[in-house]
Amino acid sequence: MSLDVHGIQLPIDAADVSPEIWSALISGQYEANEARRVRRAIQPNDRVLELGAGLGVVTSIIASIEGVRVWSFEADPRTAGLAQRVIDMNCSDNVTLTNGILAAGPPIRVEFFQRSDFWMSSRFAEQGPYEQVIQVPSSDIDTFLRAHDINVLVMDIEGSELELAQHAKLAGVERIFLELHDHLYGLAGVQAISDALARKGLIYDPRGSSGPCVLYSVDDGERQFDAEIAHAT
To answer: Is Transferase included in the keywords of this UniProt record (predicted)?
Structure first.
């Protein structure tokens, strides 16, 4: 079976995911906000690092933009397997998917809490009941960014964005599109992310932000009024 979700073909069926996720897929609600907004964060020929591939829907949308190269990471091995199916069906050879974690600092093995609704799987036990704990290897994000000349970072990593914003250098990154998880770190954590990224020269950008899906950009000066974006917002 293949579903069409935001223009991306998903070769999966109900047995592959939880009932809640299946419902979101068939209703078109799965990652709907991210799918609408992520294109505003990506420009032709960008080199994009995506953390938290999920099912590969947003990955495939990013990869469809002209000249873009994507490196994507997914911590949950079960989810990574599903994402690879989606990427293989929708993308050419411009996506590399890795089962693993990029974090700030030397490589370690990270405890990762798997949940039946994979979008709740995370590094945080306090996020709710989980099925099992697995060990996932991490690599240093700043080393990866330098090695692949990344200029855009996209992430949906269930709360770990706070640690990365505060502790990674993120040199060379011009835009960051992320989903905030204030239920894990509160409004103080949201402010801490904005403050940390501002110190790196990345400023809240309302042109590509909506609710918890937020774009931070290097200041590119004044822009002419964009009627299309204003209407969509």
So the answer is: yes
Candidates 133, 123, 56; CA nearest to 95 is 56
- Spans of all domains in the chain: 31-102+138-232
User: H/E element holding 25?
Assistant: helix 19-27
Sequence length of the chain is 233
DSSP 44: T
Chain-centre distance for alpha carbon 116: 19
| DSSP states along 68-126 | -EEEEEES-HHHHHHHHHHHHHH--S-EEEEESEEESSS--EEEEEE-SSGGG-BS-GG
The pLDDT > 70 percentage for the chain reads 94
Topology given in CATH for the domain delimited by 31-102+138-232: Rossmann fold (3.40.50)
Residue type present at position 31: E
* pTM of the complete model: 0.92
Beta carbons of 104 and 164 less than 8 angstroms apart: yes
